[in-house]
Structures
1.
Amino acid sequence: MTVPFLFVFIWCGNAFSDDSNIQDIYKISMENRLLELEAKAAAKPVTYVVLDLISKKMYLKIRGVTLKEFDIADSDTIGIGQLDESYSLVTVKAIFAPKRKEIKPPDQKKDEKPPTTTQEVDSYSVEDMPSNYTLILNKGLSISVSQHFKGNFLLSPLNYINKKMGRLWNSSKLLWSYLKKTPFIKILAVMSKDDARAFYWALPEKAEFIIIGQP
């Protein structure tokens, strides 16, 4: 019994080792590809976005330096065809778009200290920004950003309902695009209310998007 047991043990060990090596190779390959894509975007002194669908994060960057990181609570992708690695922002659509174009801090009281952290500044600078909107990019891609409900067990089911309703609505658009033979891919990104608002405010016009970790 000893020899068969050792054979099985060695075989399983090699199988797990091979899986680990494949994951390492994929990770290194993805990191190298990201460096290649960022090298092109970083050649210009403009802000661009990196959307990582595996780690569920969005990064606002300039010349390879991360300005701000945004967490994605949940995501989904629906559409026809494969995602490309790079896109350009065309426009942003929101039902309740903000009217102001610049940040104006609130009036301070005489003895009140000014905010000292980015979080404190963001808390008053983006509170009137929308938390639900759609980014329209070129080549038939759109990214729907919606608010993640948390902190109340009565609100938590809304996340499930919103996801199912969003997928149902986009499935009908997918069918229509198929019949018209037009490109259609949509990424659904659910973020915290503060992150969704901050990303809306920080996103520059005509921003370049790099998408990695495609499903």
Note: The first helix runs from residue 2 to 41.
2.
Amino acid sequence: MARSKNTKIETPGQETPQDDDSDLIGGAAGEETPKEANTAQELNAATAGATVPEPESAPAAPDVTARNAALSALNAQGFAIISAFEGRGFVAPDGQQLTNSLDFIALVKQATTPTAPAVHNEDGARKVTGAPVLTEHGWHVPH
């Protein structure tokens, strides 16, 4: 009992013609009806209020004195970073400008504050910067 061998070979141009109705999904051939374009009233009704924020959901104004105090504590490099972000208009996830966020200003301050004076060796003494240091791999001479 062997299966029958299917040896049908198809060549281009010799396909069997199919019914045009079988190619369409959910309709018959020639029944295409174009959808009418939306009118101005329909477009306005669909997009009404999409771009205008709700008054109660508008972000609260940041504390200006706290922001100014945080900005005054920044060094020149941190201030340049804040200026670049402000110029590009980045917005925080809560909707306010990113440079008004005290957390962002604190992060920039932390990133631009030099940490060399706070580095200590194993004995607890502050490391002298710029002097050659003997390490387990040999002498390290800073540039």
Note: The chain has four helices and two strands.
3.
Amino acid sequence: MKTHIRTTIFLVSTLMIGMYGLQTHTVNAQFDVSKCNREENESDCRKRLEDLAKEIQVINGGIQLQDQNQAKLGAEITQLNGEIKKTSTEIKKKNSLIQNIKSDIVEREQSLEQLNQKLQREKESLEKILRKRYELDDSTVFEFILSNEQVSDFYEDAPAFSYVQDSLSDSFAIIDQLKVDIYGQKSELEKKREEEDAAKYGLQVEQKKIEDQKKERDQALAVSEQAEASLTQLRAIREKEIQEITSKLFELRDLAGGGIPFGDAYAFAKEASKKTGVRPAFILAILEQESNLGKNVGTCNRNTNEPIWSDIMPGPTSGSWRDDQTIYQSLMKKLGRPLVGTPLSCPIKVNGQYSGWGGAMGPSQFIPTTWQSYESRIAKSVGVSVANPWNAQHAIHATALYVSDLGAGAQTYTAEREAACKYYSGRSCSDPSVKNAFYGDGVMNRTVRIQANIDIIERQ
């Protein structure tokens, strides 16, 4: 048992030394967080975030280990406290029993003293009687005559003396037997007292042993609690650094223009999550993948020198299955916005030439046809009459509703990855006709990182 406790203390101490080395290394190679709002340092800062996240995982493992150690030690201490209490109760019982035995021995000694006193008195009485009798035996006739006693009286006294003598002899025998019995009882009591004293000593030795075991566990528990406190402090330092780096990176994006501040985006994502069951981190990962949270919403349709909406959207005469142009015109009229001047996504360029269709709108990059199918639900979700794809809150709710319909509300890795692939192409990640698994994988990687940042924010 002692070996187990020493091993526990050694392991905890080793962990604390390792933590100290980790802290020392960090101090000697401090990372300059202030540089993370400069674009040329973004990759280094993101690498630092990854390293810190890994370190926090290790620290969390150490904290979990200490929690387990403390739970085990706490249970053992509780058990030992129970054993100490039980042993103390037994020792008290032994003390009470030994005290009762001592009282019984004193009573026997008092009885023996009383019998000895009685025996002494009766011996003295017998001595007087015998002396009297011997005096009669030695009396001469002359003395008898001088005594003026009758002859009949002389002979009458002799049987009385004899009777008293016999009675006293019987009393002596009874007293002697009583003394033998009482001495026997006293001897038995003294023997029992010795046995109880020995048993009490054994209990005291056992109690001391248990108390020593409890002391060892108390020491191990204190070491473990100290280790956990140090780990928790170190984790707080790392989380603070993550928060500072993340804040700088968000500042970098916001300074670049057009982006949704992360605090606002997260607040809108939490709103949407409550209504759809989709994780905020996954919603934000989709938006980050699509438009870097509204920073990249397209470069077409900004002015007449670029391809405009009618050049990049399919219309009623384009031979496409959808008519985005008509829907777009209707939407812009309801929003009171000009058809040209609002950024839209451009078609993909192949060999320097646009290929396919563009026209995706806002941070969520919905095409007009898809937006129209969700427009009433989006408006209801945010409490407006007309939903606006360029409004950050509306766009985030739109994404949440869409991926919820695609199964992301299940909040499993597979369900979210499939929803991401379908968000991108309308097809499953495993569909052989399209190669869109990269999109699902990218979204899930972003989700992990964003969730780590959210966890830090929520712990503040």
Note: Residues 151-256 form the longest helix (106 residues).
